[in-house]
């Protein structure tokens, strides 16, 4: 199978931006690409794309990022375009589910990993390093399964990761087989993977019994509450109650949703609360309905914990010299990051009626990040005290 016409040059992919490209795309048949990879002991990256906004964005903003060229060129780079018959044939052989998608193959042509959709440059570089080092690829995960105690947390987590990769690769029979092995090894959901799968299976049954998505408003959520209360791992309980809350919101039951969010919060880790908590507290603060005292106090409790998690993240970033997979931001940006989360606390104090603390935290926000928005918040609060 020849890919000479499908292996597009950087100019064909980027048009007038071709002068930015420093990527070495392979220009021969796919079989020759495998031969090259075998001979040079290199992995293969197959970039599947079409003429679309997302594919263009991924290529120009991530693949052509100045830091991407060197690590990318360690792979044998193969480009397969949807409009080209030969490239399309390769996509079909790889069972492409969406575009853009990047497949990572070992030197023998076996798929090891996949990245679908858009991905920021910093995260992409981290993923390239992970895949090149053979960390959490399909072969690595298979070895973890074989080497770990059958049915242990590590064993089932590796199985779940494999199942997820199979789904991303469109290998749905293998995906289901792996899930079934988890069900068999942990039928009561004692581990996080087993508990998450038990909840997922229950949710699918609830959807089926409720008549599918078209009758979502009529779904009976009681079985989900029962499973969420039954499972033991905190991480799984957090995910379960959070999904129940989202479903309650979809059924326009905000009070029930808030109760489910409260149950989720009791099981939330610092890592999860940082992002999840910001959304939940913000939802309550901006709610147009009359909140109960307990709901207002909950918003404050979440906001305070979010701020604490943000401060710990900044301290860790300074110590390790990186943040979210990239370089540690400048001190000014770190201060603005803390101020953004502290502003949530300001609004929560205002919600519960503690104007003194609201003004105090608003003043700290201005000191950290003297933006017009933060100044306006402070002045507005002072005008009401």
Account of the protein in words:
With 385 residues, the protein is α+β, with helices and mostly antiparallel strands. Among the domains are: 126 residues, 3-Layer(aba) Sandwich (Glutaredoxin); 118 residues, Serine Threonine Protein Phosphatase 5, Tetratricopeptide repeat. 63% of the residues lie in helices and 7% in strands. It has 18 helices and 6 strands. It has a 4-stranded mixed β-sheet, with helices on one face. A two-stranded antiparallel ribbon has the order 5-6. The longest helix is centred in the last third of the chain and has 28 residues.
Write the layout of secondary structure elements.
Elements lengths: L9 H5 L15 H11 L3 E6 L3 H11 L5 H4 L3 E6 L3 H10 L6 E5 L5 E6 L4 H12 L5 H10 L5 H16 L3 H14 L6 H18 L12 H9 L3 H17 L3 H12 L4 H16 L7 H28 L1 E2 L2 E2 L3 H22 L2 H14 L3 H12 L2
Parallel strand pairs: 1-2
Antiparallel strand pairs: 1-3, 3-4, 5-6
Summarize the structure.
Among the domains are: 10-135, Glutaredoxin (3-Layer(aba) Sandwich), CATH 3.40.30; 268-385, Serine Threonine Protein Phosphatase 5, Tetratricopeptide repeat.
